[in-house]
Amino acid sequence: MFINHSSSYFRAAALVAVALFVSSANAQTKLLRFPDIRGDRVVFTYGGDLWIAPSSGGTATHLTSHPGVELFAKFSPDGKWIAFTGQYDGDEQVYVIPTTGGEPRQLTFYPARGPLPPRWGWDNQVYGWSKDGKRIIFRSLRDSWSLPIARLYSVSVDGGPAEPLPMPTAGSGDYSPSGAEIVYSPQSRDFRTEKRYGGGQANALYIFDLKTNFAKRVTEGPRATRDPMWIGDTIFFNSDRDGHFNLYAYNVSSGKTTQVTTNKQWDVRWPSSDNEGQIVYELNGELQVMDARSRKSTPISINVPDEGIARRPSRVFAGNLIESFNLSPKGERALFAARGDIFTAPIEKGPTRNLTHSSGAHDKWPSWSPDGSQIAFISDLSGEEELYLVPQDGSKPPERLTTGGTAMRYSPEWAPDGKRIAFSDKDGTVYILTLADRKLVEIADSPRGQIRDYAWSTRGNFLAFSMPNDNQFTSIYIWSAADNKLHRVTDDMFNSYNPAWDPQGNYLYYLSDREFSPQISNIEFNYATNRPTYIYAMTLRKDVKHPFPPESDEVAVAKSDEAAKPAASPLPTDQPKPEATPKPPPTMSIDFEGIENRVARVPLPADNYGGLSAKTGHILYGTGSAPYYGRQGDRPNALKIYSIKDRKETTLVDDVRGYTMSDDGSKILVAQGAAFNLYDATPQGDRTRKPVAPTGLYVDRVPAEEWNQIFNEV
Q1: Fewer CB within 10 A of the end CB, N or C, for the chain?
Q2: Model confidence at 578: pLDDT above 50
Q3: Average pLDDT of 525-535?
Q4: DSSP 709
Q5: Residue 326: predicted pLDDT
Q6: Is pLDDT of 344 > 90?
Q7: What torsion do the CA atoms of 116, 174, 246, 56 make, to the nearest 10 degrees?
């Protein structure tokens, strides 16, 4: 008998595919959050929506589908309603919805505090119902002057003003069977991620008598106790007193506490009860239900049906997610890292190029080579962050230059001769890679902080950066390629940082915090320091002249033979004499002996300086306001340029988020609000603005690849 092997193969492949689909469709869904139980049903949050499923397991039914999150669902005592916290109009409010589904009805309207940092969770967090099912209990920050100080409130299921419970501060809480008492925690630290915290802010549980307003502490020990659930004569709660969060039971009559669950691998999370005999909780991203009488837990296998829309590949715009930016050596094209890919974009004409197309990698910190041919960047394509190289025209795929990375790596910086690349990592190590032999060396290792402000000298034979000392003040260090030695060139009395080399090889500019003029508070007798920074110039050799010698108006006395000479004809006013640009020396050397004393302050007042860079005859820097909590600073950030010869400061651009300068010092690319603009790097540069629109920055997104990368990166 003739057998068509091809047909048999495809039939077998189809059966396997169907089996995998069926298996996937019926598989236990992970990341089921904030569950509650009533009778034979459980409700939970998945993907920011509420779902309801049989407590015995099975396929879940969609209950809400708004783009905002819906969470902390709690069944009413009769099981007909579900109260929850939702974001239907932007902030978190209390809502109620029929268990059978329908339109949610909003019950609270006082503006929520937020958005809150993750460690503080959400405002207006629903905790349960009154025993008669007429009121919903929730925690709110509405009357709080500080985030740790919240309070429990109740609101009628029919609407109306919320009323505070008598406890002055409270986190979670649950009523006694009679409703005359409530077990609660005075604090809310339920979203903190630290493990085994045993300090003074650890949650404890109290029984509060609602008639006498008397509170009795019922849990002891330094570890957190949270999520109280009152069933009969027993208060169940969650605690990490054995190292992992597990359920415990406190007998109200005897005062005795016993451990109920003994999980050693995963923490019990967000347990919730029906106050009758069932407790549901998270464990390893799934749900388990526990019988409060037998103390036996059973996994609930729940499948949440998914159309797979979130997994579909798509092309998405990345121009609003730019992480960093740079310029080509002469400023012809812009360089962007956006949404994990590396792009080059034209200033005026031409295509935008995605050089990496790496949906499964986070590509960042791009830097253009001095000859314009290649771009160095950091990527975790291999699983760890490494240094890569890619042609600027995208003609070849990226090439990995390093291996063995163990920490986040930052900002490749090319030496001006294109022979070396410097970069650093999160552990405070500075590396230099030699391109010719791919040799990687560590030149500095700081145990007290990261090093991110390294800068190459004009000839590429020195690298300057700041590094923390034992007293946590940073000093400027210079690494010499000739002897592979590290030299500290500023003392440890002040913070000195952000070095920038004079292109002529005569000076090293840097910032240093040396102005201490404290500002006294109007509210309390305390102070803050503002505008503490000066700009300094260090002469690199003993024969280099002082950069800012004293100025004095003196009389120029003409010699006798000069007095007889006729005056030279002036140049036409429309033809100014061009200023010659001196060329940098063919070699560059530094006299390290006594260098820390060869320092002059740039004649500028103290300010909040940052982003220092240098070009021939000028330095560029940013100024701005000191940061404030709750409001904008008293002046916008500005980019300024200072003429060394004229000793004159000019504001180039206002409202600056950041900037970068081309290698030849001719152009600057400035981030202003959400826009990018190119300017000439001259005192008159404010009149040369050219908008650079990152409209062509698109990435081909494969969600499953992105999720894997995000998980590994975290």
Answers
A1: N
A2: no
A3: 92
A4: H
A5: 98
A6: yes
A7: -100
Position 130: which residue type? Answer: S
Q: State the pTM of this model.
A: 0.79
Which token pair is 378? 């950091």
Q: Is 210 exposed, middle or buried (0-12, 13-18, 19+ CB in 10 A)?
A: middle
Dist. CA 466–CA 536, nearest whole Å: 14
Q: Are 97 and 136 in contact (CB under 8 A)?
A: no
Indicate whether 233 pLDDT > 60.
yes
| Cα–Cα separations (whole angstroms), residue 519 to 529, 607, 626 | 6, 14, 12
Domains in the chain with CATH codes: 33-310 (2.120.10.60), 312-448+677-713 (2.120.10.30), 453-545+586-662 (2.130.10.10)
Mean pLDDT of the chain, nearest integer = 92
232-236, 492-496, 514-518, 683-687 — which is least confidently predicted?
514-518
Residues in the chain: 714
Provide the CB-side half-sphere exposure for 688 (13 A, CA): 15
AA letter at 26: N
Antiparallel, parallel or unpaired: β 374-379 and 125-129? unpaired
Q: Which amino acid is at 388?
A: Y
Tokens of 20: 């995998």
Angle at 91 between CA 194 and CA 129, to 5 degrees: 75
Secondary structure (3-state) at 561: helix
Of 159, 161, 163, nearest in space to 151 by CA = 163
Spatial contact of 39 and 274, defined as CB atoms under 8 Å apart:
yes
Dist. CA 386–CA 560, nearest whole Å? 71
pLDDT tens by residue, 123-178: 999 999 999 999 999 999 999 988 889 999 999 999 999 999 999 999 999 999 99
Rounded CA gap, 112 and 125, in Å?
A: 10
Please check whether residue 537 is in contact with residue 529, taking contact to mean a CB–CB distance below 8 angstroms: no
Both tokens of residue 489? Answer: 């060139």
Sign of CA dihedral 537, 538, 539, 545: positive
From the list 227, 217, 235, 218, the residue with the least C-alpha distance to 275 is 235
Side-chain half-sphere of 707: how many Cα atoms within 13 Å? 7
Give the separation between CA 677 and CA 694, rounded to whole angstroms.
11
pLDDT above 50: residue 20: no
Which 8-state DSSP code applies to residue 607? Answer: B
Q: Kindly state the DSSP code that residue 40 receives in the 8-state scheme.
A: T
> pLDDT for 403-454, tens place per residue?
999 999 999 999 999 999 999 999 999 999 999 999 999 999 999 999 999 9
pLDDT of 509 higher than 80: yes
461 secondary structure, DSSP code: S
Tell me the CB-side half-sphere exposure of residue 711, using CA atoms within 13 A. 6
pLDDT over 80 at 191, yes or no: yes
In angstroms, the CA 247 to CA 259 distance is 6
- Higher per-residue confidence, 526 vs 108: 108
